[in-house]
Sequence to fold (199 residues):
Amino acid sequence: MNLLNEMERYATDNNIPIINKMSSNLLIDAVKSKQPKSILEIGTAIGYSALLMAQYMPQDGKITTIEQDASRIDLAYDYIARAGRTEQIQLLDGDASTILSDLEGTFDLVFIDAAKAQYLDYLCKIVDKLSAGAVIIADNVLFRGMVLSEEPPLKRYKTIVKRLKEYLQFVNTDSRFTTTIHHEGDGVAISYYQGANKK
Ligand SMILES: C[S@@+](CC[C@H](N)C(=O)[O-])C[C@H]1O[C@@H](n2cnc3c(N)ncnc32)[C@H](O)[C@@H]1O
Fold:
């Protein structure tokens, strides 16, 4: 069994939410066509999507990935080491909302896959770190169909649904971004950043 298959099995057996097949196909396509030299991932879990992206990006490209759950961080370090990609993938340990404000460098591709209610906050914190033409991929933006549903969401999901709507509203109306929402899986928004001068 290869490492990614082993990780898929571990995630299923231990209820760890990793990217689903439909979203991962979109993610792989974006990485293949963009060929990003620098990737930022928000939400590492055990490192599955980071290792997936690493397979398709340029060999000298780098991934910065952020995770706050201690046990997942340990597993991610282990898997990244086993894949021989410790030089390529830097794992930052902590709350993305804090880490993003202090992050250095610019990013050609950003994969947002952490706290659903924080997506817009994450994007606002990194917008000045996007290279012109950068791709932003946000997973689960339709949140089990609730984001586009006419029915009011269950009370416990109200905030998530409201905030995801705000995220989509932002990337659909801010002239710096061109966005397509893919309805496959749990919904994936792919936005292209046109650069700071466009606003
Ligand atoms: C859906 S999982 C990520 C899956 C991963 N991208 C993959 O497909 O293999 C979301 C992860 O984000 C982490 N997370 C949630 N809020 C976070 C935050 N504020 N800062 C850092 N990590 C966060 C969770 O602990 C969880 O492991």
Notes: Residues 17 and 53 are 17 Å apart (CA to CA).
